[in-house]
């Protein structure tokens, strides 16, 4: 099938499919005219890629995991390398969540401190003064 059909069947834009190819995640054949030709397996592969991206994995991590990926879920073959990669990504996400939590608490404190100093809570800051740099 050509890229347009794969795009329709997976609901993934052709430029994203070309990106997956550039990242080594898809390997279409080329026709004599230079068109990308995908096998039926490409539908499953794109589904797997999308689900792994939704789980927060990078394309580099997905490329590393692809030999272990089976099924549309996708399921992963039980191999230590896959678990190490997944646990490392989970640890990174946990660290980001913790950092965002600290940032959120600090921002909330700034808001509350500023609101306490306002003589009239209904008064708004001048829009031109907020966020201007000059």
Automatic annotation (TrEMBL):
Membrane-spanning segments: none
SUPFAM superfamilies: Putative DNA-binding domain (SSF46955)
InterPro entries named among the record's database cross-references: DNA-bd_dom_put_sf, MerR-type_HTH_dom, MerR_fam
Biased composition (Basic and acidic residues): 111-126
Domain HTH merR-type: 1-68
Pfam families in alphabetical order: MerR_1 (PF13411)
Gene Ontology molecular function terms on file: DNA binding; DNA-binding transcription factor activity
Secretion signal, residue range per the UniProt entry: none
Keyword entries, A-Z: DNA-binding
Renumbered residue ranges of the record's region Disordered: 111-134
The protein's name in its UniProt record: Transcriptional regulator
Source organism per UniProt: Actinoalloteichus fjordicus
